[in-house]
Design brief:
heterodimer, A: 300 residues, alpha+beta, 8-stranded antiparallel beta sheet, 3-stranded antiparallel beta sheet, 26% strand, B: 434 residues, mainly beta, Porin
Amino acid sequence: MATAPCRTQLEQRPGHWLGRFDAMASPCEVLVETDSEQEARAVLEAVAGCAWRIEAKYSRYRDGNVVHAINSSAGRPIRVDDETADLLDFAAQLHQLSDGLFDVTSGVLRRAWRFDGGQQLPDAELIKQLLPLVGWHRTAWRRPTFRMEPGMQVDFGGFGKEYAVDQAAASARALTTGSCLVNLGGDLAVARPRRDGSAWQVGVEAAGAAPGQAATLIPLRSGALATSGDAHRYLLRDGRRYTHILDPRTGWPVEDAPRSVTVVADTCTQAGMLTTLAMLQGRQAEAFLRDEGVRAWVQR
Amino acid sequence: MKNGKIGSALAAATYSLLGTLPAPPAVAEESGRWDLDTALMYYSEGDDRVQDVSLGILAKRSFDDDRVLNLDLTVDTLTGASPSGATALGAAQTFTRPSGKGTYTTPAGAIPLDDSFLDTRVALGVGWTQPLARLYTLSAGLGFSTEYDYTHLGANLSLARDFNQRNTTVSAGLAYSMDDIDPVGGAPLPLSAMADVGDLSNRRGTDSKDVLDLLLGVTQVINRTTIVRLNYSYSDASGYLTDPYKILSLVDPLTGDTLGRSPAPGTEGPSGVYLFESRPDTRAKHALFGEVKKFLGGKVLDVSYRFMTDDWGIDSHTVEGKLRWPIGDSMFIEPQLRYYTQTAADFYQVSLLSGEPLPLYASADSRLSDMDAITVGVKFGWTTPSSNEWSARLAYYSQTGNVDGSQLIGSQNDFKQYPDMDAVIVQFGYRFRL
């Protein structure tokens, strides 16, 4: 399949190439430490292709993909491909590890909640009605067959972007011997350390900051970084901030969750899960991250 | 949520999702991983000739800064019979085994095959590659192998430099090996006659050879889909280059029949006069190799040609083509075709003529004769969701000799004198990461 040339842009910077494209409703970047424009372009195309592929396959906003097939299965068993099966395995493990706090079926609750910075709280009755449609324990997953109650929804948005970062970084690593940084809308991974051993300087925007406002600079030699935050996704009511992080067990937002959490880990998927799990801890987010012993930045 | 750490469980879940360890991890300054490539190969020649089962493991560990450690281990077991060099004859022929203990007999009309082959070879190699300066890569390696009658020790060193924004790589390499040969029963004196059982008077002890190889190579990226590689290599071997188990029949210059002989009374021994072969003690080879690799929308076409010429008079040409054809996202099928042709060594002859002075060098080894070979194969590969790769290869090899008609005398024309050979190769591979 030919890719329209305008979908990616490549420009040379001192010591590296900078590629840009849009995916998953976010601006994305790839930095490649190489002298060869061809190599940089090959990496950019591979990274963008990987992001677009995963977006097309797992976006809940698109028809005709595997998520759509699962969500319109109406209680029938669905046989899924290996990659989707791996993601479902991961979802099952995370559900268990988090004692049910992390749940890929919690997306239906969005029907009740609109996190647009507004004031409208949902009808408690509606949430009560939706709760029976939430819960990994209501699904039957036996690789490669997945089945769930009619009306339930699966959403890989909780780790899909981070997964795409890791996959894209892996494809970049195969194409260049130089260092490479993949950034999909703020979740990023370094595919290989830079030749001179120096770190990439990663700017993490403060939650609620105006564009252009100073960001926290995090030096990253290798590994990955992910941020979870509600800079623009919250609800204000009676002076109370309701974050977009919902507790799937109650159907209500987690109380006193931080405004944003940034974590550095070996892979972007791990970093992303640690930020999400930290947010789900609410007031205990910092304690959770301390116990995990990870490098983290929390903004209240 | 469970108290305390979920980090390690999360890491395990992530690694199983991504199918790979992150390289390199976020905190550790230096860490690597092992890439293992294992292969099991079965090679079987028709007519109960050589059978070889080989198991190979190649382990590669990458470290930060593109430093790579390679370790390889190969174990193979060889059984079966191979042509001794003696001509087929209208009567049964008896030969003394290479060990000097016992005899074997070839029926009338058949090409004599020595069935004493049984060997196990173990080979070990270690290699190290690292960048030397910004555009240089240095590789060094050591190799050792041992089998019943042969020990090999080798070392190699090569340096590559990138040019032209790393689109051109020029490399130069040097390899040196020292091999010790300890033939079963001792190395026979060249052109001495095969003796009766128990008579080792024409055997010497061990011998050795040294081989020096030089390699110059250029790899050029032509564009995003095409890579071209050109290599020149020079190989200089000196020492014992004779095959201690190969013989020639001494024949009547008119009838073509092997001269008969009788063993000493009370002993067993050869039924005819057979002389051990003799080869020069140096051999210089020049080879040119060219390869084009082209990516064609997911498919990979690989075409190569090799020309080799040496001072024994052998010229060979090899043409090989492979086309890797993806099936879906995780499988591929790769048809392979290879054609090989060579001219005979100057000293190759079907037999030695009685009454004529013996040449300095002579061999009837079918591998030194004029011959063609073709290999047709197909490889199938499957990559698992965790990026491990299974592969299976099936190939058919057919070798046909062209013995110069002017070399055949009298009754030699009544029988097939070149041991044509067909072989089947079955190979399984599994590549994974630790």
